[in-house]
Amino acid sequence: MSAFAAALGVLAADPNLGSDAVYRAGGSGPEVVLRVLRSSPDRLGDAFGTSLVQATDVLAVAVTALPAIAPGDTFALGGEVLTVQHAERDAAGVAWRVVCHR
Fold first, then answer.
1. How far apart are CA 88 and CA 68, in angstroms?
2. For a disulfide at 69, which of 11, 54, 63, 87, Cβ 3.0-4.6 Å?
3. Topology of domain 3-101, per CATH?
4. How far apart are CA 57 and CA 82, in angstroms?
């Protein structure tokens, strides 16, 4: 295990930073219970010359917990279901950066 993988595990396990989540491939596959790091940055966009603020959810997920993530997969966190729009691995290949919508 690399130092980056160990650090991700410590951060995800921290109750102040990590969250319990239930992952489902395609939104209806078998449940996988795991810990994720969640952030909810606002994105600025432009439509017809008007600036729009769009809420997004970005999850950091250990690659060891989920070797593959695809658009349409879902994560349930508390009472919310987040649908994957895009997922990419970090430079070290340790974590997924998963952009989701509610």
1. 10
2. 87
3. Thrombin, subunit H (2.40.10)
4. 8
